[in-house]
C-alpha cells in the first residue's frame, strides 16, 4: 500500500501487537448474540440423530421379527421419520442463518478493528492480509456452520448405532470401536500435516492478494510493457496462485487418505464380524442381518462425519489467522465519538505548539533510517502557513505527526499549553480537516450529513454551491448526501475533497500538495481565493506546496531539509500585519 510519495510504507516505531486470542474465544464472541438459536439448532441435530437411530432399530425389529411388525411399530417408524425430517430442516435453516450472521459479524469486527487502529499499523500491515481475512477466511468460518449440523447429526447417529450394537452384542461393538479408534490414529497423523498445509496456504494467500492488488494498481504499467505483463501474470502472480493451490491440494489429499483409511478399516471390521467365527460374534441369521443393517446404516453418517472434519479444521485455522492479523492492529475497539471529541471538532484555541517533536521511519529511497525533528513550531488561528522542501524532506510525515495520525516518539504537542497525550489524541485529531496527496474520496458526505435525517436538502444545497464554485456542477451533483459520480480525474476528485473539507468547518486545515493536479486557473483560485477565505474565517491553514509563485501569500513559509525546519520566512501577509501593529504602537 502506498502511503506517501516521500516515505516508505512502514513507520519505524510500531506498537507491540496484542497477543492473539484463541479461536474458540472469537467464535464464542461472535455467537454471543445468537447463542439461543445456536443451542436450539444443536438440540435439533441431536434429536435428528436419535430419531435416525430409532428408525434403524424399528426397521431392524420389523425385519428380524416379522410377527412384531404391527401397526404400532409402523406408526413409531412414521413418527421417527417425521421427527428426523423436521429436525433436519430446522437445524439446516438455523445453521444457514447462523453462517451468514457470523460472517457479517466477523467482517464488521475486522472493519471496526482496522478503523480503530493507529495509522502507522494500518500502513505497516497493508490491505492484502485484511482482504484475505474478509474473503477466504471469513468464508471458511461461515462454512463451519454448514458442517456443524452434519457433524452433530452424523456423530449422534454413529454413537447411537454403536450403543445399539452394544445392546445387540458387546463383542461386535468392541470390534467396531477397535476399527474406528485404529482408523482415527491414522487420520490424526494426516490431520496434523493437513493443518500445517492450510496454515501455509493462508500465508501464501496474503501474498496472492498483494499481487492481485498490484494487477489493478499497476494496470497502466502492465499495458505499456507486454513482457512485464507476461512475467508478472505468469511469474509472480502465477507462482502465488500455484503456491496456494499446492498447499491446499496437500491438505485435502491428506484428509482424503485419512477418510479412506477409516472406511477401509470399517469394511475390514464388517468382514471380520461376518466371516471370522473364532471371534465369537457369528450369530443366527436374523441377528447377523441386524448387524449388517446397523453396519450399513452407520457407514454413510461415518463417512459424512469424517468428510466434514476438514471444514472444521479449515475454520479453526482461519479463526487463528483472523486473530493473528487483528492482533497486529492492536487491541483497540472502535467507539463512537465522545462528547469531548465532538466539541473539539469546532472548539476555538489560541496556540498549537510542537515542542521538540521527533519521529523516525525507514526511508525507502535512501535505505536508511530517517528522522524528522526535533521540531519546535507554533500555529495560531487566522494564519496561513506554507511548508516547503524537496521530495523526501519529511513534509508529509511532519503533517501526519502534526494532525495526530502519528504519535511523536519524542517531544510533545500542546494545545493552549495542555499536552496532547494518548487519551487526548482522538479528540485532538478531530480539530483537523486534511486533504493529503494520497487522499481517498468517499462517495457520500460521511460525518457531515446525519444518516437519521431523511431530509438532506440543506447539506445538498451547501455542497452543490461549493461544487459550482469549483466548476464541477456540469459533471457531478450532490443528491441525498452523496455524489452522483466519482468517475472524474484526480484533480477533479481533489476539488470534491475540498468541498468536503469546507463543509466540515474545523479550526485547522491541512492541504498536502492539493494544487499539484490542478490546471493553472484552479491553482490561482485555490491560492488567491480559497485559502485567504479560510484564513479570514479564523482558520489555521497549513499548506504543503512547491508553488513558489504563491509564497508571497503566506504569513509564514517553513522550509524542511532532512526532517528539520532550516528556515522560516515571513510572507507579505505577515509583513503587512507587523507594519499594522507597529502603526498602532503595539510592536516595539
UniProtKB/TrEMBL annotation:
ABC transporter domain ranges (all copies): 352-587
SMART domains: AAA (SM00382)
Membrane topology: Multi-pass membrane protein
InterPro entries, A to Z: AAA+_ATPase (IPR003593), ABC1_TM_dom (IPR011527), ABC1_TM_sf (IPR036640), ABC_transporter-like_ATP-bd (IPR003439), Cyc_pep_transpt_SyrD/YojI (IPR005898), P-loop_NTPase (IPR027417), Type_1_exporter (IPR039421)
Gene Ontology molecular-function annotations: ABC-type transporter activity; ATP binding; ATP hydrolysis activity; ATPase-coupled lipid transmembrane transporter activity; peptide transmembrane transporter activity
Location of this chain's protein in the cell: Cell membrane
Keyword Repeat set for record: no
Keywords for this protein: ATP-binding, Cell inner membrane, Cell membrane, Membrane, Nucleotide-binding, Transmembrane, Transmembrane helix
This protein's name: Siderophore biosynthesis related ABC transport protein
GO BP annotations listed: peptide transport
Transmembrane segments: 37-59, 74-96, 141-159, 165-187, 254-276, 288-306
Source organism superkingdom: Bacteria
Gene Ontology CC, one term: plasma membrane
ABC transmembrane type-1 domain span: 36-314
Amino acid at each position: 500500500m502506498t502511503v506517501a510519495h516521500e516515505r516508505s510504507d512502514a513507520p519505524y516505531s510500531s506498537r507491540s501487537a496484542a497477543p492473539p486470542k484463541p479461536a474458540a474465544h472469537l467464535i464464542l464472541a461472535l455467537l454471543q448474540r445468537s447463542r439461543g438459536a445456536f443451542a436450539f439448532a444443536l438440540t435439533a441435530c441431536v434429536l435428528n440423530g436419535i430419531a435416525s437411530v430409532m428408525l434403524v432399530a424399528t426397521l431392524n425389529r420389523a425385519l428380524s421379527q416379522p410377527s412384531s411388525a404391527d401397526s404400532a411399530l409402523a406408526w413409531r417408524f412414521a413418527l421417527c421419520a417425521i421427527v428426523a425430517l423436521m429436525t433436519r430442516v430446522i437445524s439446516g435453516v438455523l445453521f444457514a442463518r447462523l453462517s451468514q450472521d457470523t460472517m457479517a459479524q466477523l467482517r464488521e469486527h475486522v472493519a471496526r478493528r482496522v478503523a480503530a487502529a493507529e495509522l502507522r499499523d494500518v500502513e505497516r500491515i497493508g490491505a492484502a492480509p485484511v482482504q484475505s481475512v474478509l474473503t477466504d477466511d471469513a468464508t471458511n468460518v461461515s462454512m463451519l456452520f454448514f458442517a456443524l449440523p452434519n457433524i452433530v447429526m452424523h456423530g449422534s447417529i454413529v454413537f447411537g448405532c454403536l450403543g445399539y450394537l452394544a445392546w445387540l452384542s458387546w463383542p461386535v461393538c468392541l470390534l467396531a470401536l477397535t476399527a474406528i479408534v485404529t482408523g482415527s490414529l491414522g487420520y490424526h497423523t494426516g490431520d496434523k500435516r493437513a493443518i500445517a498445509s492450510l496454515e501455509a496456504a493462508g500465508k501464501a494467500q496474503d501474498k496472492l492478494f498483494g499481487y492481485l492488488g498490484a494487477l489493478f494498481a499497476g494496470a497502466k504499467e502492465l499495458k505499456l510493457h507486454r513482457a512485464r505483463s507476461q512475467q508478472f501474470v505468469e511469474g509472480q502472480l502465477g507462482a502465488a496462485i500455484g503456491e496456494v493451490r499446492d498447499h491446499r491440494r496437500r491438505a485435502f489429499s491428506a484428509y482424503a487418505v485419512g477418510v479412506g483409511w477409516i472406511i477401509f478399516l470399517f469394511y475390514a471390521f464388517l468382514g471380520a464380524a461376518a466371516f471370522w467365527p473364532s471371534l465369537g460374534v457369528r450369530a443366527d441369521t436374523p441377528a447377523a442381518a441386524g448387524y449388517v443393517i446397523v453396519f450399513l446404516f452407520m457407514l454413510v453418517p461415518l463417512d459424512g462425519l469424517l468428510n466434514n472434519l476438514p471444514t472444521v479444521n479449515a475454520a479453526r485455522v482461519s479463526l487463528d489467522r483472523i486473530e493473528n492479523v487483528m492482533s497486529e492492529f492492536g487491541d483497540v475497539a472502535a467507539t463512537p465519538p465522545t462528547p469531548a471529541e465532538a466539541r473539539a471538532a469546532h472548539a476555538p484555541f489560541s496556540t498549537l505548539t510542537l515542542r521538540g517533536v521527533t519521529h523516525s521511519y525507514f526511508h525507502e529511497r535512501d535505505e536508511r533510517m530517517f528522522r524528522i525533528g526535533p521540531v519546535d513550531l507554533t500555529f495560531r488561528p487566522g494564519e496561513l502557513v506554507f511548508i516547503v522542501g524537496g521530495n523526501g524532506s519529511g513534509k508529509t510525515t511532519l503533517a501526519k505527526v502534526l494532525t495526530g495520525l502519528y504519535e511523536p516518539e519524542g517531544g510533545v504537542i500542546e494545545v493552549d499549553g495542555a499536552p496532547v497525550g494518548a487519551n487526548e489524541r482522538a479528540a485532538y485529531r478531530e480539530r483537523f480537516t486534511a486533504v493529503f496527496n494520497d487522499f481517498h474520496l468517499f462517495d457520500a458526505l460521511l460525518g457531515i450529513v446525519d444518516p437519521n435525517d431523511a431530509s438532506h436538502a440543506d447539506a445538498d444545497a451547501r455542497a452543490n454551491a461549493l461544487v459550482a464554485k469549483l466548476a464541477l456542477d456540469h459533471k457531478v451533483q450532490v443528491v441525498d448526501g452523496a455524489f452522483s459520480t466519482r468517475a472524474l480525474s484526480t484533480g477533479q476528485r481533489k476539488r470534491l475533497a475540498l468541498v468536503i473539507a469546507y463543509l466540515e468547518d474545523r479550526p485547522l486545515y491541512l492541504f498536502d500538495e492539493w494544487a499539484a493536479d490542478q490546471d493553472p486557473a484552479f491553482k490561482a483560485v485555490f491560492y488567491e481565493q480559497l485559502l485567504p477565505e479560510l484564513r479570514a474565517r479564523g482558520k489555521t491553514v497549513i499548506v504543503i506546496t512547491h508553488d513558489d509563485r504563491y509564497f508571497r501569500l503566506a504569513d509564514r513559509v517553513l522550509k524542511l531539509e532532512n526532517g528539520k525546519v532550516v528556515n522560516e520566512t515571513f510572507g507579505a501577509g505577515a509583513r503587512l500585519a507587523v507594519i499594522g501593529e507597529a502603526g498602532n504602537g503595539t510592536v516595539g
